[in-house]
């Protein structure tokens, strides 16, 4: 199980990821935009969200750093836009940590299957720290 940093931006994520890749001399970033995901008729994607970054990752000095833009209309507070991500191949480990961290905290998204993970959830713990927990099947990862 790894603890990784997740940075959220307010519409300028692509610029930030490319900047950090250049600064730290990393590989060219692979960037997935919200518009690249499979359409869901129940939740149509607003036009202004299509080019925003849904997920990107870089390896900086041996550590994984993940990035995304906030979804249009979602709250964004500069300075509170850093969360910790737990990525594990053990679903039971994900469920156990999530259930312990949510005690006294606020769940943003209950653990559930998403198109990128068999088990993903996010919450803010009782100390105000944001967490994302995701199962990594090893196929595409988070």
Automatic annotation (TrEMBL):
CDD domains this protein is in?
A: PhnB_like (cd06588)
Q: Which Gene3D superfamilies match?
A: 2,3-Dihydroxybiphenyl 1,2-Dioxygenase, domain 1
Task: Give TM regions.
Answer: none
Q: In terms of domain of life, where is this protein from?
A: Bacteria
Among SUPFAM superfamilies, the record links this protein to: Glyoxalase/Bleomycin resistance protein/Dihydroxybiphenyl dioxygenase (SSF54593)
**Which stretch is the leader sequence?**
none
Identify the residues that the record assigns to the PhnB-like domain, covering every copy: 5-133
**InterPro entries assigned:** Glyas_Bleomycin-R_OHBP_Dase, PhnB-like
What is the protein name for this chain?
A: VOC family protein
Task: Tell me what organism the protein belongs to.
Answer: Cytobacillus praedii
């Amino acid at each position: 199980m790894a603890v990784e940093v997740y940075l959220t931006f307010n519409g300028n994520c692509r610029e930030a990821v490319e900047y950090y890749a250049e600064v730290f001399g990393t590989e060219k970033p692979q960037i997935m935009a919200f518009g690249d995901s499979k359409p869901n008729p129940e939740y149509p994607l607003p036009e202004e969200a299509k080019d925003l970054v849904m997920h990107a990752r870089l390896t900086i000095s041996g550590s994984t750093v993940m990035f995304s833009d906030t979804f249009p209309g979602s709250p964004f507070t500069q300075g509170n836009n850093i969360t910790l991500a737990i990525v594990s191949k053990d679903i039971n480990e994900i469920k156990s940590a999530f259930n312990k961290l949510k005690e006294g905290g606020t769940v943003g998204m209950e653990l559930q299957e998403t198109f990128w993970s068999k088990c993903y959830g996010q919450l803010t713990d009782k100390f105000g720290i944001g967490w994302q927990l995701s199962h990594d099947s090893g196929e595409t990862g988070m």
